[in-house]
Design goal:
Shape: elongated
Largest sheet: 10 strands, mixed
Radius of gyration: 34 Å
Helix content: 40-55%
Number of helices: 25
Strand content: 15-25%
């Protein structure tokens, strides 16, 4: 074994480029696999880890303070089955005004709480600090727009609040926190208890445990952690098809490249194998030498890939957690990391063992001559035919080189083809994600404006609309108001989004089928709603709202996984359904109009304090993370394909050292040698691009459609057909770029070889 180790170590040092290629390819393969496994593991543990770390409440129960005393609720913390409890906390609803009061249908539910910690629901501050005294509030929303540090909340008839911080919580049921002393100024009428139970495996167990703990106390309602968990899983499942397909592509490319690299390393070392056998190495020892020679750099690359993939999975999981407003991110599973690394190493060893066994059986004389004597007939006929054409001599010789090693050429071409497929799909998925991210009305809005709370100067909605239409740069204006409606035969209420004004440009391109509504009496539900109730375009619905029945006809469906969303014209509903809802105006500006300048001009034209207005920038955070993730996968796979080309050219140069020496002896210049070697791979790059680009388009279409079917939301046609020539040309050229860049370094090295050194054995 000492002789085997010595020979293997010498082989690693002698073949530095090849050893580095093996290490890098294995590192990229391992990182890709570990990252995919880590992200899939996080999809199962991310919510659970965040929930356990934050001591989230299994149930958040709300009570009427006039019917249940605080002492009676505090006693429920000691009920059988309750492992931890917090509260009772006094709650108040801050009424909404026409300004940007905050999320929620009727107002902002705030809780009196002096400490973000405690035995249940430990809050995570994301910005700012915790409340310290009267007049301060911490919100559970994403910072932005009117909700920023130092911003003001002005509930009508109640004290003004200053936003001093933002916090995340894994527990539903509230949107803000104030001090216990401050909540008394808001006329609190509710009490809230947070519970953790020893039996809370599902919705039914949570309900049973809560009923037993409260012992029949009258509740206003309760929120279960199961609802939040299912919502998170539904959104995270969007990633699974994409990650799975990229992982399959990465492993397929790795199979081709690792097999090419390792088998090529063995084949190019046949002369060395012959020398070892002449010195007395047994076939088993020869096989062991080459397996160890490949395993050493592979082990190093695997270690680097494990670390990189693990850290990348943690980083992306943290970004995804922030996008889902979770206070902490789950980590990748070490067992899966080790399993992924072991799988890649097993692949490398298998790829090394098969050709090494063949080498171990070769007679010594045949093995010694195999590395330096070119086999007659391999590609010679094709080269002679190409030389008789009008092609330059280097191009003719280069185009014939791939025929000399058809198996290696096939592996290299397969790697390039899959690399182009991955890049094409990555570009397409990035475009799809950005279209989905900006598909809602906010994604098409430039400025939002509304009548300010406690507006002075007689500003009204009608006056504001007239002012907006009179402003230079105004292209379209729309107002929106939510309304709760019911449909006969559907047990739960639905959220109807009522639009008025020039709403068509704001609705975007998220239609799965049919068309957008164009007037009263027409409705467009979500595709998930249509599939759940087995409806189709042309069907009629009877809505119950504000005590009146309204008949509407379905004219289309938009892509969304929510099963309770409808869109329609405001004129389709009774005026009473939306009269109490705030309806700020959304504005689309003409091309070239700066939103900030527009807001300044609009504010100056209105009475002081008469309106609020601000530019709108779509939240691309989650879309940018996913889009960057897809492009990163594409670049990793394409880089691995380029390394496969580098190794292929390096092996070809070594095997054809005698031929290159003869060519240089008869007058071939170094530039012509480089051109010949690069041309041989450029041809494969062009073929790989021609095959990989259409395949990438097909895979992209299949993955996007599959994702829509899994979520039940469908996918809009514009989200599927995202490719144009400007999008398709760069990935199609990726095969050529990878081939040329991968072939260039070994081609320069081959051109620099001295003729005398190559032909000294002749």
């Amino acid at each position: 074994m000492s002789a085997v180790w010595a020979a293997s170590r010498a082989g690693v040092r002698r073949r530095r480029v090849q050893s580095a290629s093996i290490a890098v390819v294995v590192a990229l393969s391992t990182a890709t696999l570990v990252f995919g496994l880590g992200l899939l593991a996080a999809s199962r543990s991310l919510f659970d880890d965040a929930f356990a770390q934050a001591r989230g409440a299994h149930a958040t129960a709300s009570f009427d303070a006039a019917r249940v005393s605080a002492d009676r609720l505090a006693a429920t913390a000691r009920a059988p089955g309750v492992t931890a409890a917090a509260g009772p906390f006094r709650t108040a609803v801050l009424p909404r005004d026409k300004g940007p009061m905050g999320p929620g249908g009727d107002g902002l539910l705030v809780v009196g709480r002096d400490d973000p910690g405690g035995p249940v629901d430990r809050l995570t501050l994301t910005q700012g600090r915790w409340v310290r005294g009267p007049g301060e509030v911490v919100l559970r929303v994403k910072p932005g727009g009117p909700f920023r540090l130092g911003g003001k909340l002005t509930p009508p008839g109640l004290p003004e609040l200053t936003i001093v911080g933002f916090a995340d919580s894994v527990t539903d049921g509230f949107m803000g926190w104030v001090t216990t002393a401050q909540v008394a100024a808001f006329r609190p009428d509710g009490l809230q208890m947070l519970y953790r139970f020893d039996r809370a495996k599902g919705a039914s167990e949570v309900r049973q445990s809560l009923t037993a703990a409260t012992a029949g106390l009258p509740m206003r309602g309760y929120d279960s952690y199961v609802t939040a968990e299912r919502s998170f899983e539904k959104r995270f499942n969007q990633l699974i098809p994409f990650v799975t397909v990229f992982g399959v592509l990465a492993m397929a490319v790795s199979v081709f490249i690792v097999a090419n690299v390792v088998s090529g390393a063995v084949v190019s070392g046949f002369r060395h194998i012959g020398v070892m056998k002449a010195l007395g190495f047994t076939p088993a020892q020869v096989t062991a030498v080459y397996v160890v020679m490949v395993a050493v750099p592979a082990l190093l690359g695997c270690a680097v890939g494990l670390l990189a993939g693990h850290l990348l999975a943690l980083r992306i999981a943290a970004s995804v957690a922030a996008g889902f407003e979770l206070p902490s991110a789950g980590g990748a599973a070490p067992v899966l990391d080790l399993a992924g690394g072991a799988g890649v190493l097993a692949l490398v060893v298998l790829a090394a063992v098969l050709p090494a066994l063949r080498a171990g059986r070769l007679p010594a004389v045949q093995a010694i001559s195999a590395g330096t004597v070119s086999r007659r007939g391999r590609g010679r006929r094709l080269q002679r035919w190409l030389l008789r054409t009008r092609l330059p001599v280097p191009a003719g010789l280069g185009l014939g080189l791939p025929a000399a090693r058809p198996a290696r050429t096939a592996l290299t071409l397969a790697g390039l083809c899959l690399g182009v497929t991955a890049v094409t799909m990555g570009f397409g998925l990035q475009q799809t994600v950005m279209k989905i991210t900006t598909a809602d009305t906010e994604g098409h809005t430039s400025v939002v404006a509304g009548v300010a709370p406690r507006a002075s100067g007689g500003m009204t909605d009608d006056k504001l609309e007239a002012l907006l239409r009179a402003q230079p740069g105004t292209a379209h204006i729309m107002s929106f108001a939510p309304a709760n409606v019911r449909i006969l035969g559907v047990p739960s209420s639905l959220s109807a989004e009522a639009y008025s004004g020039d709403y068509r440009p704001f609705l975007g391109d998220s239609l799965v089928r049919g068309r957008w509504f164009s007037g009263p009496g027409e409705v467009v539900p979500s595709e998930a709603f249509m599939r759940l109730h087995d409806l189709d375009v042309g069907d009629t619905l009877t809505l119950q709202t504000a005590g009146e029945p309204v008949k509407v006809r379905i004219v289309g469906a938009f892509a969304h996984p929510d099963t309770d969303r409808l869109m329609l014209d405001t004129a389709s509903l009774p005026a009473a359904a939306t009269k109490d809802q705030p309806s700020p105006f959304s504005v689309i500006l003409t091309k070239g109009t700066d939103p900030s300048d527009y807001v300044r001009r609009l504010t100056a034209a209105a009475p002081p304090g008469g309106l609020f207005a601000e530019p709108v920038r779509p939240d691309l955070g989650e879309g940018a993370v996913f889009g960057g993730l897809f492009l990163l996968f594409s670049l990793i796979i394409c880089a691995a394909a380029g390394l496969g080309v580098l190794n292929s050219v390096l092996l070809s140069a070594r095997e054809r050292g005698r031929d290159l020496g003869v060519l240089k002896a008869v007058g071939t210049t170094p530039r012509q040698v480089v051109a010949m070697m690069v041309t041989s791979m450029a041809a494969l790059g062009i073929v790989g691009g021609a095959l990989g680009a259409p395949l990438g388009v097909l895979v992209h279409h299949g993955v996007v459609v599959l994702t829509g079917d899994m979520l039940g939301s469908g996918m809009a046609s514009s989200w599927i057909h995202v490719y144009s020539w400007t999008v398709l040309v760069p990935p199609a050229c990726a095969g050529l770029a990878a081939a040329v860049l991968g072939a260039w370094p070994p081609a320069l090295r081959a051109a620099a070889t001295r003729t005398a050194a190559v032909l000294r054995s002749e």
